[in-house]
Write a structure and sequence with these properties.
The complex is a heterotrimer of chains A (546), B (207) and C (101). Chain A is mainly alpha-helical. Chain A is built from 15 helices and 1 strand. Chain A is globular and about 65 Å long. Chain C folds into 2 domains: 52 residues; 29 residues. In chain C, helix 1 runs antiparallel to helix 2. Chain C is flat and about 50 Å long. Classes of the chains: A mainly alpha (546), B mainly alpha (207), C mainly alpha (101).
Chain lengths: 546, 207, 101
């Protein structure tokens, strides 16, 4: 059935809500997964921009040795907040809370998630946690300065607002847990008839694996944050060496969550790559089952490696050896994915549109970041580069150059479906190019500096490092310009872009069979699924929405 | 990818299995939350075995055993209330639910007196008596208060959930043909019981 | 909560009788008694494993009968297994540090 280009044939979910309210209350009291996803998006965009601002200011301070614009205490708070906001308010919720919420039900042929009201509650928890984190900046005591890792003993001794920040993170963890719970039950109980696990799109496999990490790892950081708070209030002494406690035990607990957390961040991004690459190669994904199983493997292996963050902390030699050994293993499933994505592109009918450009950048950046991760998993290298900017470069390459770029790519890919309009392709490509150049200028020098000995989280530095800092700071400015162009493009195109049809890309998953934007209940009738995703055997290039 | 659509919108009905699945998954998070504390306990007991034994002498094994029996019995009454509602015996379901609440309260009262006794003899975080003890003992009591305190908090939460269900049963929201809410309350309550099943020997039976 | 569901309609979940629950409860009480009794005996380094072993049997009873796990779909049992193994892994890997100081 041919679907006309400007095909809004029925009321969209913007026009029809799940409750009787109009306007703001129609959103704040909604149980529609699409509105909830969008509310997450709008909120996290604000937090993202705040965190980017802190990042830019950090880089500005590091332009010269000694003081440039702020004092050391402020600098410590800035890098702490940059980390806390980026990690807990942007990257961890990021893809699952926005794209997962919006598209998981649609892509499995359901009308909503299993627990819609719990979904709304998750969003409120997110908002409460986020607002508490922001409020803690201004309470007496001042913004927290411990680094996002809240290491004992300083997190107990610091006079800044550690407890509000810790509680905010706890609440955000709870939000994360409830979202994961919802997704697991939804995937198990609400797939459309005929959609077996192995006919689900790979983004679903990614979200499913992520959800299990959310469930099984997050509570560990929950109890750890509670213990910090209890320690600050009651002086119980559980991590206090003077009372027999062990600060390294804190690190064990903290990283038992925070390492799997990076896979909460990375897996959904990889899921998005698996969606976008087939669409713009006009080919089915190479090695579907390998990619599906690799998602589960990453969740599993990623839970076994946490102490590679602690090689210099004073662990036993046995622990160091074992964790290093296991760390090498966790790279294998990721490498499998990269191999399969590249194999999908090979001899495909490539259409180099903005979403695909972001995916190519993801592959390059994640490869660099991931390989540098394997390097620092080696004990001999780790001793030298631990707590240097080499580490900072490593995780920004995977988190930022990887996950954030995947987020931007997903934003462009699903833009027409969400808002019923197309973004401006030229601006899309330009902003991508500027951001990619800026990003690499920003972080490549950090690998070099770190190798040369530049410590991380340091306010001041020796003159020999300055040239690299200058390049990096200029890179941050270039990046921000590209980001501004992208934000402008997204913002304007929502209302002014060319109308988009149901399937502007020729996608082969369920979301492209419904109108753009979707109706309230997604489907007229729940589809009966007979084929797997990414089936291009009967591909016909659709008439393009320009 | 879909070759045809189902003829009409499928019949919409309740999914109790999914509902229970959701509660089980939530219970896993509680398991891991307490699990973190058990890891801390394990490490410190491994490092301070004798001091832990010494400190445990302050605890009254009889009270601990009594509380264990109280919670185990409350699990029984919780399970019985579900059987009752499944068989359509609303009054019996209410009776067993109220009994469960009562037993939870007994547990908390015992706890209150236990803690109170310790405060009286000067054993609490940062007290002169406690800081004079060995490091292992200080850690033991730190863990004792944290773990039994967090557990007691969950007993309270469980009681609130059961109280809601008492109201649901009374108002026939929960009845013979729709009682997954009560089942889920039961699941939560049993987890609270399981945590105590491990806490009891680890704190009360070290000698 | 109303949802689309692609399973065939199944029967009401299995109802365990009053007597069965009471029987299990008596078993739990007995095991508690055993735990207290053996605490008086010095097993040396086997004291903790012995106590935990009995606690685990009690937990197994609560899980399978009181919490109905025995009668649920197999996926529930897989989930419980995965969660328990995960916690176990956290313990074991942490002790690769502390066990070898």
């Amino acid at each position: 059935m041919a679907i006309p280009l400007n095909n809004v044939i029925e009321k969209t979910f913007y026009q029809e809500g799940t409750n009787a309210y109009k306007g703001l209350l129609g959103w704040l009291l909604t149980t529609d997964h699409k509105r909830i996803g969008l509310m997450y998006f709008y909120a996290m965009s604000v937090f993202f921009i705040v965190a980017v601002t802190f990042g830019v200011l950090i880089r500005l301070e590091l332009l010269t040795p000694g003081r440039t614009i702020i004092d050391p205490q402020t600098y410590n708070s800035f890098f702490t907040l940059h980390g806390v906001i980026m990690i807990f308010l942007f990257i961890i919720p990021g893809l699952p809370a926005f794209f997962g919420n919006f598209f998981l039900p649609i892509m499995i042929g359901a009308r909503d998630v299993f627990f819609p009201r719990l979904n709304l509650f998750s969003w409120y928890l997110y908002m409460v946690g986020g607002i508490l984190a922001v409020v803690s900046l201004f309470l007496p005591g001042g913004p927290v300065d411990t680094g996002w890792t809240f290491y004992i003993p300083y997190s107990v001794r610091s006079s800044t607002n550690v407890v509000p920040a810790a509680i905010a993170a706890f609440i955000l963890g709870f939000s994360s847990i409830l979202t994961g719970l919802n997704f697991i039950v939804t995937i198990h109980r609400m797939r459309a008839p005929g959609m077996t696990f192995f006919k689900m799109p790979l983004f679903m496999w990614a979200l499913y694996s992520t959800a299990w990490i959310q469930i099984l790892a997050t509570p560990i950081v929950g109890i750890t944050l509670l213990l910090i708070s209890i320690e600050r209030f009651f002086g119980v002494g559980i991590f206090d060496p003077a009372l027999g406690g062990d600060p390294v035990l804190y690190q064990h607990l903290f990283w038992t969550y925070s390492h799997p957390a990076v896979y909460i961040m990375a897996l959904p991004a990889m899921g998005v790559v698996s969606e976008i690459i087939p669409t713009f190669s006009r080919r089915t994904i190479f090695g579907y089952k390998f990619i599906a199983f690799s998602s589960v493997s990453i969740a599993l292996f990623g839970s076994l490696v946490w102490a590679h963050h602690m090689f210099t902390a004073g662990m036993s030699g046995v622990a160091q050896f074992i964790f290093s050994f296991l760390t090498f293993f966790v790279s294998i499933p990721s490498a499998i994915k990269i191999f399969n994505w590249v194999s999908t592109l090979y001899k495909g009918s490539i259409e180099l549109r903005t979403p695909l450009l972001y995916m190519l950048a993801f592959i390059a950046h994640f490869a660099i970041g991931g390989l540098s991760g394997v390097m620092i998993g080696a004990l001999s290298i780790n001793i030298h580069v631990h707590d240097t900017s080499f580490i900072v470069a490593h995780f920004h390459y995977v988190m930022f150059g990887g996950v954030a770029f995947a987020f931007f790519g997903a934003l462009h890919y699903w833009f027409p479906k969400i808002w019923g309009r197309m973004y401006n392709e030229r601006l899309g490509i330009i902003s991508w190019a500027v951001m990619t150049v800026g990003f690499n200028l920003l972080y490549m020098p950090l690998f070099i500096m770190g190798y040369m000995g530049m410590p991380r989280r340091y306010y001041d530095y020796l003159p020999e490092f300055q040239i690299w800092h200058v390049i990096s700071t200029v890179g941050s400015w270039i990046f921000v310009i590209g980001l501004a162009i992208m934000i402008y493009n997204i913002w304007i195109s929502r209302k002014k872009g060319d109308p988009a049809g149901a399937d502007p890309w020729g996608g082969a998953t369920l979301e492209w069979t419904i109108q753009s934007p979707p109706t309230l209940h997604n489907f007229h009738e729940i589809p009966v699924v007979t084929k797997g995703p990414y089936d291009y055997s009967h591909y016909e290039k659709p008439a393009e929405a320009k | 990818m879909s070759s045809h659509h189902a003829a009409a919108t499928p019949h919409v009905h309740r999914d109790d299995v999914g509902s229970r699945m959701g509660m089980w998954i939530f219970l896993f998070t509680e398991l891991i939350l307490f699990g973190g504390l058990f890891i801390v306990y394990a490490v410190y007991r491994f490092q301070f075995p004798d001091e832990f034994k010494l400190a445990a002498k302050e605890l009254d094994t009889l009270v601990g055993a009594l509380n264990t029996i109280v919670l185990l019995t409350s699990s029984l009454t919780m399970a019985l209330s579900i059987t009752a509602i499944a068989k359509g015996s609303k009054k019996l379901a209410l009776f067993f639910s109220w009994t469960t609440l009562f037993l939870g309260l007994v547990f908390l009262v015992n706890k209150y007196f236990e803690w109170g006794h310790k405060f009286e003899v000067g054993i609490y975080p940062q007290s002169a008596v406690l800081t004079a003890k060995s490091n292992g003992e200080i850690l033991y009591f730190g863990l004792y208060y944290t773990m039994t305190g967090l557990h007691a908090l969950h007993v309270i939460i469980g009681m609130v959930i059961i109280a809601f269900n008492v109201w649901f049963i009374a108002r026939n929201v929960v009845h013979q043909h729709s009682y997954v809410k009560l089942e889920n309350a039961g699941l939560y309550w049993h987890l609270v019981d399981i945590i105590w099943i491990y806490l009891f020997p680890l704190f009360y039976l070290l000698h | 909560m109303t949802h689309h569901h692609d399973d065939s309609h199944h029967h009401e979940s299995h109802v365990v009788g009053y007597g069965s629950f009471t029987f299990v409860w008596l078993g739990l009480l007995a095991l508690t008694g055993v735990t207290v009794a053996i605490a008086g005996i010095d097993f040396g380094k086997w004291t903790i494993p012995a106590a935990l072993f009995i606690a685990t049997i009690k937990t197994g009873l609560v899980l399978n009968i009181f919490m109905h796990l025995k009668y649920e779909q197999r996926i529930f049992k897989v989930f419980v297994g995965v969660s328990a193994v995960t916690l176990l892994i956290f313990f074991v890997l942490t002790f690769f540090d502390y066990g070898f100081h």
